[in-house]
Design goal:
It contains ten helices and five strands. It is α+β, with helices and mostly antiparallel strands. Strands 3-5-4 form a three-stranded antiparallel sheet. It has a two-stranded antiparallel sheet with strand order 1-2. A hairpin with a 7-residue loop joins β4 (145-150) and β5 (158-162). The longest helix is centred in the N-terminal third of the chain and has 16 residues, at 47-62. The chain is elongated, with a radius of gyration of 21 Å.
């Protein structure tokens, strides 16, 4: 009577408290945001059960006595320190992930984030400078941007867009969460005709 160990069967027998604890443990172990489908696959629980567990965790972490929160980043969920505690923690934990951006890098990244997909020459035109090669190379190395296709014009220039790493770094769920631009700010991102 040697029965095989079946983790899926075992997980179906978990009660709601243990299901939530299992999802919490997975989020604790992961360093990247996970979507509901991935959480369901790893845990062996149904997507609906995972969603309920995430809701319970959000309630738990939204309390004042919690130093962590569930962050929604790029369509996924991850555990992170609450923003209100980050200034205290940054000297100890932020250095390894800290990236210092030059003004040129921030301008280029902003153009890509707000105007994607965008070509290198369009970026140069909006910034009013030539040769953004070194900035683009840095953003590609840091995985903040990526090639997203070719523009349907003569020469088929490469178009760029932001990545999930960009969303994670700036703690955004999606590009729609970028701050809204006023008219004068938006005008800076328009191409000259």
């Amino acid at each position: 009577m040697n029965e095989k160990h079946d983790p899926e069967n075992e997980n179906e027998k978990l009660n709601p408290i243990k299901e939530t604890a299992l999802v919490e443990a997975i989020l604790y172990m992961e360093t990247d945001p996970l979507d509901y489908n991935t959480l369901a696959r790893i845990s062996g629980l149904s997507r609906d059960v995972v969603k309920k567990a995430v809701e319970k965790l959000e309630e738990k972490y939204n309390r004042e006595d919690s130093g962590v929160e569930l962050s929604r980043i790029g369509g996924g969920i991850m555990l992170s320190a609450k923003l209100e505690y980050w200034n205290t923690l940054k000297p100890y934990y932020g250095k390894k992930n800290e990236i210092r951006f030059s003004r040129a890098t921030l301008e280029t990244l902003s153009i890509i984030a707000y105007k994607q997909p965008v070509t290198r020459s369009e970026i140069e035109s909006m910034r009013g400078v030539q040769a953004v090669d070194s900035v683009m190379r840095l953003l590609l190395e840091k995985s903040f941007i990526r090639e997203v296709g070719k523009k349907d014009v003569p020469g088929k220039p490469t178009q760029y867009g932001t990545t999930r790493e960009f969303l994670r770094f700036f703690r955004l769920e999606s590009i729609a969460d970028l701050p809204k631009l006023n008219e004068s700010e938006a005008a800076r991102f328009e191409l000259e005709s």
